[in-house]
Amino acid sequence: MNFRLSDEQEMLRNGLDKFLATRYDLDRSRAAAKTGQGWQPDVWRAFAEELGILGAALPERVGGIGGGPIEVMVVAEALGRALVVEPYVDTAVVAAGLLLRAGGPAADEVVERIAAGTAIVALAAAEEQSGDRWLDVATTAHADDHGWVLSGQKMMVLGAPIATHLLITARTDNGLSLFLADVTAVEQGLEMHGFRTVDDRRAADLVLADVRLPRTALLGDEGQAWPSLTQARDEGAAAVCAEAVGAMRRVLADTVAYAKQRHQFGQPIGSFQVLQHRMVDMHMELEQSAAAVYLAMLNLGADPATRARAVSAAKATIGRAARFIGQNAVQLHGGMGMTEELAIGHYFKRLTALQYEYGTTDHHVTRYAQLTRR
Amino acid sequence: MDLSWSPTDIAFRDEVRSFLDERLTPELRRAGRLMTSVYSDHEASLQWQRILHERGWAAPAWPVEYGGQDWSLTQHYVFSRESTLAGAPSLSPMGIRMVAHAIVKFGTQAQKDYFLPRILTGEVFFCQGYSEPEAGSDLAALSMSAVDDGDDLVCTGSKIWTTHASEANWMFALVRTSRSAKKQQGITFVLLDMTSPGVQIRPLVMTSGEEIQNQVFFDEVRIPKANVIGAVDDGWTVAKYLLEFERGGGASAPALQVMAEEVTTAATAQPGPDGDRLVDDPAFSRKLAEARIRTDVLEVLEYRVLATLADGGHPGPASSMLKILSTELSQTLTELAMEAAGPRGRAYQPHATRPGGPVAEYEPPPDGYVGGEAWQAVAPLRYLNDRAGSIYAGSNEIQRNILAKAALGL
């Protein structure tokens, strides 16, 4: 048993932490999210070129470093601590995983571009009637003489407004399938309604009206997309858990510092036992979350049932912790915790949103129950 | 002992309903339904207040001689419940429900004559100046100085968490007129003209993006002593009296019932984790049922406190209990609404809602596109704003301290 990072992983973490501390300013990133393009392309470029984090967990044959889940954990946690809005998990974990498993020249080329920082890839899976159930897909695809024709709608596609590529789930005669669309190459039929999310990311609703894609757009075998999608969802959930741990570390540290510095009734509010116990509970939630991330990450390569059980345990734990730590951090900061003036309000919004990403807390508790039922 | 309504009460309910049917316009209902916090859109709120005032219903809880209604306890409850059910915008609590009670109890005849009729019409719109940057939970530590200068008090300092400071033309405030060993002494309750020279307002952007709260700065602002309520240095007595109005003694259960109904309706139309209706999901329906049970019980608890009030009694520490229970329940319900909204609950679309103030740094889509339904856009904003419930009007930690002391003698 060994929980130590390798020298390379330590270097990756230290380099990223240093970069984010000096070059990722909270105010500037919020300004970009709110009134600018929605992200900072120069930061993304630096992620690829200076830090190599986008390819850290990708194979060397596509320009990556050849790491795995532990690299994802290190990177996502650091990004969470700095409240990075750029879509690392969606692009470099979820989309890259789907593309790698599909294989083929078209997919490999996009993964190479992900590692190089020149592609942002968004997964269009949720639909109006499906809610968060990716298996419930009404969007259709059929083949004609020229390629594929897709019709339907997708909602809340994270990262879509800034994406170079979309991964779209659709049903063919043979079942659930996955398609790759180069956004700039789509000539007609794709309508995109972009908006901001509560946690300052970009997302879009899509309407697909006979969108034409080349024959090579089909990823993997027709009708066989579900196992890979389930795995992508688990990988996304695990990465978001690591991101959450980074965010929660910062939130707890800020809360403890505030409780020491804020005086009421002639003493620091941190001297009141009721608040001390609250912060101790937050601390214990955080420690359990950090342990849960290991549980998830170290089982990502296991068989599907083992993987699913570990990921659900982690996401349920992190969902509970993110809720408790987020809500109480705001409470202990009083009114200031509800403003945009301190970091805490921004972190609270992220800790709220991520409870619902890649399966809600309830979803994962229920799935865990199903997997452990006799 | 009886929980049912008499035929007179039912007749009154029908009277209220037909009034609401007739006067509550679709636009006002929209403003009420799409509120993102306890504060409705300022213009809609004032417009509704004027309509209510025409009927004599703007401030039914006031004494009849000042424009109130001689209603029974049940009638007050019925009125509040029906208004909430119909989706009426809320009225600002600061004037009608708060400072007016202090003016009635402690004010001079001249103060009553000037302020009460103008509060009713909305011509005088109050904000509250209690908290200061260094005096939040420890309110009595407030330090905004008011120096005696002939006929005036001259005020310098700052107030924070002032709701609707920019919309208000008057503020009721607690200021420090003298310092003594006991910090509750030497505080004075004043009415302050917000158009006075030396008043500066800085809006605070909340996590919902809304600018409803403010920090207000005072630089040698002159307040005529005629605008002191009660005695100089004895403002704590007035403030304590008002705090009971702020913390409870109202009926929050009807609004919570409406929220619970809305969540139920939403969950009936939304897909659950198994593809069935969300309302059929065991995990979700259990949480919702538990919240509804707490709401049903809170309603009876509130009845009991209202009955004490109706008998001329004081809510006392029970108002702290009601404040804790109702705010925490409201937070639970806003969270369930967020869950019911599904993936849509993460979209930031304030243009589809009617927030209680301007929204900072936000450009609505040029084509006005709204993803999903309006209630799904409301859900996350309400969730964010509702975190204030356990912080304002004395945090719930402070309320528990009060209860430990006053209810349990600890």
Structure description:
The complex is a heterodimer of chains A (374) and B (410). Chain A has 11 helices and 10 strands. By secondary structure, chain A is of the alpha+beta class. Chain A has 3 domains: 7-119, Acyl-CoA dehydrogenase/oxidase, N-terminal domain (Butyryl-Coa Dehydrogenase, subunit A, domain 1, Orthogonal Bundle), CATH 1.10.540; 122-219, Butyryl-CoA Dehydrogenase, subunit A, domain 2; 226-372, Butyryl-CoA Dehydrogenase, subunit A, domain 3 (Up-down Bundle). Chain A has a 4-stranded mixed beta sheet. A 4-stranded antiparallel beta sheet of chain A has the order 2-3-7-6, with no helix packed on it. The radius of gyration of chain A is 21 Å and the shape is globular. With 410 residues, chain B is of the alpha+beta class. Chain B is 45% helix and 13% strand. Chain B contains 12 helices and 9 strands. The mean pLDDT of chain B is 93. Chains A and B meet through strand 6, strand 9, helix 9, helix 10 and helix 11 of A and strand 9, helix 11 and helix 12 of B. Strand 6 of chain A pairs antiparallel with strand 9 of chain B.
